[in-house]
Amino acid sequence: MLKLGLSLPPLIAYTKTLEVQSPISRFSFSKSRARNRASRSGFRTLKAVLSEERVVKGDEELKGKGKGKEYDAIVIGSGIGGLVAGTQLAVKGARVLVLEKYVIPGGSSGYYERDGFTFDVGSSVMFGFSDKGNLNLITQALEAVACPMEVVPDPTTVHFHLPGNLSVRVHREYSDFITELINKFPHEKEGINKFYSECWKIFNALNSLELKSLEEPIYLFGQFLKKPLECLTLAYYLPQNAGNIARKFIKDTQLLSFIDAECFIVSTVNALQTPMINASMVLCDRHYGGINYPIGGVGGIAKSLARGLEDKGSKILYKANVKSIILEHGKAVGVKLADGREFFSKTVISNATRWDTFGKLLKIDELPEEEKIFQKVYVKAPSFLSIHMGVKASLLPPDTDCHHFILEDDWNKLEVPCGSIFLSIPTVLDPSLAPEGNHILHIFTVSPMEDWKGLSQKDYEEKKELVADEIIRRLENKLFPGLKGSIVFKEVGTPRTHRRYLARNDGTYGPMPRNIPKGLLGMPFNTTAIDGLYCVGDSCFPGQGVIAVAFSGVMCAHRVAADLGFEKKSPVLDAGLHRLLAWFRTMA
């Protein structure tokens, strides 16, 4: 559900929301409002907050333009991966055009406003926002374009409510978390310490490296010469999964089930199917850098990156629905929009899923071999049912945690539709997201597209309410008595919602392995078999989640910059490394 940065699947505002919102009037934050938030909530300041200004411009300048105007790179989609790739390139001096189907940036990390509430589309659990190390990729991306944000630290990453009345808080301080877990499983003290120590070994190796493209050999060789032990550590764990390593040290079945739940909110699969590198990034960074929530909501990240992109001389165009990638002699040279406009560039970066990129945007006769391998190893993960609610503040006890994971009575229901529930209450950290006297509850549960097909509009609406009411009943029984009577606003989204507004194939949040994977060996990088075409986002290495897609964006920008001449490159070494990486993927 959370996936490497806990980037939960999205709920975009519904049609009636889209009709009344203006990207200029509805989505700006004043300096005084930000200061009020900080003073009321005790925010930790990293840098200056969003300044008073509108959402980035773009439409008027680019209306009617297209053919004859060439960019260095066109980015399809303004999710975090696409925006990080675009801004990193713009900082290096490239001319970038980002094309966004929606009216504001962010994709799964966007937001919408209704009845005085500011709702995060996806996750409220933000990794990569600390002020230290090399994995604070969101902080680095924002600072690169001089648009840093203020954050508030979250003292508890997540509070687990599990079968057998097992309750575990993942405290910000690592020692507090480990102490609590050992107190629950004192007979597994040694195993607990050994498993999480393995995670730290991987995290520390990754955090010691300068993060750039793993497809760029000059960078790779340079890092290996500087940090050979760290590079070898990561290479050793690359094909391994968290569940196998946990079972080396731990025997208690309930504790192993807890680690399954830990991994499920990283990857929405159990520990045996979760790459150890992915698990380690999240299970350690939550203590090293901590979870930090941006003032004003998660949507401010994309808005700041989009503004920074334009400040660097590049462009973003909204309501730009890309229908196809233009190929000339087998090379990607531009894109065509639904309204017929065409834009041309030296490179094209797709922030769409690989299924959408190669199944819809590219008009080719046969799928490239590396994409066949990808689709052999990975399938589209199921989507989610999402509920955004406003509730009376009196419902919540004063010590309520921001994030909760609920699986009441049966470990076997962990991965099944509507089996487990993830709940975020971002107003615990930023009260100004809701009208005074109210809180926001943001609820997710697994729900595949197949469950929502073939329904009439009447049946569809009735089913949404029935499923939502059952989820609310469960939360009322487990956490918040009187919840239903405290609701002042409710909006329900389904996989059909996610597909419609995010243009994601079947509403999927990304890939998940068909079987037990060999770690990350099968996950493709940014380059593709199509010359000039690159992919970025959650269906590229290292996978799903805010920190992961930001990493993907950094890697993609570096590789594209090298190919465009903004960074050093070696064609001979490039060819050799490409063949080596392709061979590795065949082993998956």
Automatic annotation (TrEMBL):
Residues 80-560 form the Amine oxidase domain. Keywords: Carotenoid biosynthesis, Chloroplast, FAD, Flavoprotein, Isomerase, Membrane, NAD, NADP, Plastid, Transit peptide. One of its GO terms (molecular function) is carotenoid isomerase activity. It is an enzyme of class 5 (isomerase). The keyword Iron-sulfur does not apply. Its EC number is 5.2.1.13. This is prolycopene isomerase.
